[in-house]
């Protein structure tokens, strides 16, 4: 048993190292003082971070990506809450099938999903536009909004709402002052995770961007094809740090248990 425990620990450590090693290489390469990516860097410099924050084109792309991610997270939050509220409060036949459709982007291959979304977006003439990419991002991030919200609603004690209604509160007042505050952790978690997924989305976005519109991850990908500059590693390091910070905030403030399969309220 002790041998199996040590072997399991060794395998776990190797898996963790395998997952973290590429990130460490990128971060270390971002501090290279040379004009090309090297690992380990011969000398340490922050010149590439300064070059990124001084480049107006890169910053403009970053701004567009931030706006896109905020809007995608906002729309997904509204749609996810509406779907979760109906499913939890109004149990219906075929519920597993409805939930499967909502969660489909989690299990469907992204390449095939991208082709399907491209077909739909093309029908509306939105390929290469902000609106087309936004529509795709909302579809992709919707499951990440639905899961924590449905978990929060499932844990909500309906008696508190009933008490407010019995005391004469208007249904909208009850919803605004009782329901929403009680599910706020799920809403906040949903919004932040949707933002992260949208901000980092590459595979599907690659099929939809055009000459007049692109996102930061796609521009990084294109830059790597032309020139593996350390500035790309610096930008990637900024994105990694930003993403990790958001995940840590979610885990510290709300926890990640909201993404565990919830039990629906009956």
Give a description of the structure:
The chain has one domain (56-259): Orthogonal Bundle (MetI-like fold). With 266 residues, the protein is mostly helical. α2 packs across α13. It is built from 13 helices and no strands.
Set out the fold topology.
Layout: H1 2-30, H2 47-54, H3 56-89, H4 95-102, H5 104-107, H6 110-123, H7 130-155, H8 158-166, H9 171-182, H10 184-200, H11 203-206, H12 216-226, H13 230-253
Helix pairs in contact: 1-13, 2-13, 3-7, 3-10, 7-10, 8-9, 10-13
Please tag this protein with its features.
266 residues, mainly alpha, MetI-like fold, 0% strand, disordered C terminus
Q: State the end-to-end CA separation.
A: 43 Å
Bulk shape: globular
Please count the beta strands (DSSP E, at least 2 residues each): 0
Can you tell me the CATH class? Mainly Alpha
Write the CATH architecture name.
Orthogonal Bundle
The CATH H-level superfamily is MetI-like
Q: Extract low-pLDDT stretches.
A: 262-266
Q: What name does the CATH topology carry?
A: MetI-like fold
Quick description:
With 266 residues, the protein is an all-alpha fold. Helices cover 75% and strands 0% of the residues.
């Amino acid at each position: 048993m002790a041998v199996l425990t040590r072997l399991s620990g060794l395998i776990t450590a190797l898996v963790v190292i395998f997952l973290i090693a590429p990130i460490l290489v990128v971060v270390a390469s971002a501090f290279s003082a040379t004009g090309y990516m090297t690992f380990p860097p011969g000398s340490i410099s922050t010149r590439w971070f300064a070059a990124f924050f001084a480049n107006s084109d890169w910053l403009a792309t970053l701004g567009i990506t931030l706006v896109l991610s905020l809007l995608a997270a906002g729309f997904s939050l509204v749609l996810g809450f509406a779907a979760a509220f109906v499913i939890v409060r109004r149990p219906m036949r075929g519920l597993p099938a409805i939930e499967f459709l909502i969660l489909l982007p989690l299990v469907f291959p992204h390449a095939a999903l991208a082709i399907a979304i491209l077909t739909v977006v093309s029908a509306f003439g939105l390929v290469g536009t902000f609106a087309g990419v936004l529509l795709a991002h909302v579809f992709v991030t919707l499951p990440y909004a639905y899961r924590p919200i449905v978990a929060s609603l499932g844990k909500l004690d309906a008696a508190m709402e009933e008490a407010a209604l019995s005391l004469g509160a208007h249904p909208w007042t009850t919803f605004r002052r009782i329901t929403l505050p009680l599910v706020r952790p799920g809403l906040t978690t949903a919004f932040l995770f949707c933002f992260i997924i949208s901000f980092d989305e590459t595979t599907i976005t690659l099929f939809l961007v055009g000459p007049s519109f692109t996102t930061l991850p796609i521009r990084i990908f294109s830059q790597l094809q032309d020139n593996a500059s350390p500035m790309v590693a610096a930008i990637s390091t900024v994105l990694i740090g930003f993403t990790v910070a958001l995940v840590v905030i979610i885990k510290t403030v709300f926890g990640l248990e909201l993404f565990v399969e919830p039990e629906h309220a009956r």
